[in-house]
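During the first year of the project, the team set up a workflow for recording each protein of interest as an amino acid sequence followed immediately by a discrete structure-token representation. This format lets reviewers and collaborators read both layers of information side by side without switching files. As required by the reporting guidelines, we include two representative entries from the current panel. The first entry is reproduced here exactly as it appears in our internal archive.
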Amino acid sequence: TKNDILLLSYLSAEPGANDPIESAVRFAAESDLEILKSRPNKHEVPGYKVTGFVPFNPNTKMSNATVVINETNEVFRVAKGAPQVIIKLVGGNDDAVHAVNTLAGRGLRALGIARTIPGDLETYELVGMITLLDPPRPDSAETIRRCNGYGVEVKMITGDQLIIAKEVAHRLGMSRVILDAGHLVDPDKSDEEITQHCERADGFAQVIPEHKYRVVELLQKRGLLVGMTGDGVNDAPALKKANVGIAVHGCTDAARSAADIVLLAPGLSTIVDGITTSRAIFQRMR
């Protein structure tokens, strides 16, 4: 049921993490589930005890919790993560793949939830999907349009699935030439070919942290000046490598120390102010 999914996703959400997805999951569960509304201690789930937790990792793309049911002392594990990862974990499920693609076509992200079967801590079964709406920031489309007007090409790099990336690109007024990040590390292609892909593409989907660095590196080898925005610890190497690293509002300390510019206001529109200001300075120097 819906309640099962919410409870299991709550148990596998990192408590106190400043992560928008984890916060959304916890908020949804706390708003809907009676046992979470009426509990005396906000740090416990009545009837359950989380004994182990592996936080979300950008490379595995999932988090994992080990839970004990107090009454029976039965132990089970819950995995929550990117739908393709969870579907692979449970050994494939065509209905789930179809559901994820249908949601993605509407611009909705899905999170898969799976739990282990009784008596076996290695075999997972699919419980269901949580849908998340993750719209672009309201100023993003305008920022991209203005950057293009100044001759700055914008590329989108995202961990989301290809189909969602294309939908978001379309909403932002970018063209839909989005490549799977696998293209960046394809052993059958020469560096020259990969660099051409990199130049022509409007973005990359299903990336892991290393890919971001690779994009910056390839474009720089072409003699292009590259600016890169990011907010996480895993963006830090790419921010440092770029000619101009831009850490966005609310970023981690690692991103902030690796960047050249730190934005203090939410959104990306300040980047355009940076372009116009720097061009004014450059003109005066000339």
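The second entry, processed by the same pipeline in the following quarter, appears below.
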Amino acid sequence: EPTVRTELMEQIPPIAIFLQESRPKFPTAFFEYLMPIVVRYLTDVNNQVRKAGQEALLILLEQDLVAQSDIENKVCPILLDLSAPDSDDEYKVEAVNIICKMASMLSRTTVEHMLLPRFCELCSDGKLFQVRKICAANFGDICNAVGQEATERLLIPKFFELCSDSVWGMRKACAECFMAVSYTTSPEVRRSKLSPLFISLISDTCRWVRQAAFQSLGPFISTFANPSSAGLYIREDGTLSIRPSAQDVNTNSCQPSNNITLMSSSTNAT
């Protein structure tokens, strides 16, 4: 019954955590018994079971419970098969979604050598716009996962393609992640290639694309600033933040937090 397999998948992560904590007693139980089940359920005929398997896999990766050898020899080959050009449409959409989500949890070498070539292929998938949409929405995360060299050599040409896609939702997704892509490139690429590309989005015929581009204008401009002097940096979740200067830190060193400082000011004002 699919409901039984789904319930089983939901129990895998806590069991895996228990086995990890009790590793001297169960040194190989997870790798021999549980990991093969997770991998097998990624191709289950029932979509609810597959979804539970995907969620379990991502939790296991987040908790760093999957060995590098299992990732490269078991997980990645399955995802590459599911995202192949002749794969079933539903399986392909699910596979590219997992690839994008897990990229930030894997080593740069694994992503660049095993997943990046397939991601670049999927960016040009002419059959399913849903696949290209997922690639566009997660483009900044992939750039961050592989670093500047691979981004400029392989990903920027694909980004240009997506920014001129005939589906306006694709161009809108590119505008929304423009800052994250720009942050991964060199100042020269930012100035000579991404700036003209951004102008094309901000002048797009679709108002939804233009609106998304205008909302990304400030964050995009911020990537031209020197982080050491401007104090701007990108958090792990991809959002732009401001690092307080040394002078601000020294000024507030006696204060427990900025919130308390504000509360004290408001109290004095009353």
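For the second entry, the following points were noted during internal review. Strands lie at 232-234, 240-242. Residues 1-66 form one domain. Both points are flagged for discussion at the upcoming steering committee meeting.
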